[in-house]
Structure to design on (127 residues):
């Protein structure tokens, strides 16, 4: 894991394609109050139930993009990290959000299949 200096954390938060180790470092930094971002799963609810990264903040399925796009506008100035199964759907969502003015959107490049951090099963509960 990367050292948790303020500079390293900011660099990771501004990376467009995050690796497994990057996300684990950022989650540790967030747990320690050193990083602020929203972790979003763009897979379908049945996929989330099978396995999801802990702690995922939002479940916004790509198939329902039109339904949640307005809701996510309030997060335009926040650091967002999105993921899916292999990184393809989340990459597509990342590109669309960037086109609509979202500044800091990171994508877990190889998705949850490559993630070696904490994963759980279960239904999404709004926080």
């Amino acid at each position: 894991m990367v050292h948790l200096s303020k500079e390293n954390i900011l660099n990771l938060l501004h990376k467009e394609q995050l690796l497994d180790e990057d996300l684990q470092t950022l989650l540790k930094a967030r747990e320690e109050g050193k990083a602020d971002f929203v972790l979003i799963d763009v897979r379908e609810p049945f996929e989330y139930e099978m396995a999801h990264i802990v702690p995922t903040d939002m479940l916004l399925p790509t198939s329902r993009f039109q339904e949640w796009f307005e809701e996510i506008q309030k997060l335009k100035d926040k650091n967002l990290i999105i993921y899916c199964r292999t990184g393809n759907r989340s990459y597509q969502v990342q590109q669309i959000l960037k086109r609509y003015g979202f500044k800091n959107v990171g994508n877990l490049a190889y998705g949850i299949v490559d993630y070696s951090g904490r994963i759980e099963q279960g239904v999404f509960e709004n926080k």
Residues 19-118 form a domain with the Oxidized Rhodanese; domain 1 fold (CATH 3.40.250.10). The beta strands are 17-18, 38-41, 52-53, 58-59, 79-83, 104-108, 119-120. The longest helix spans residues 20-31. Residues 91 and 107 are 6 Å apart (CA to CA).
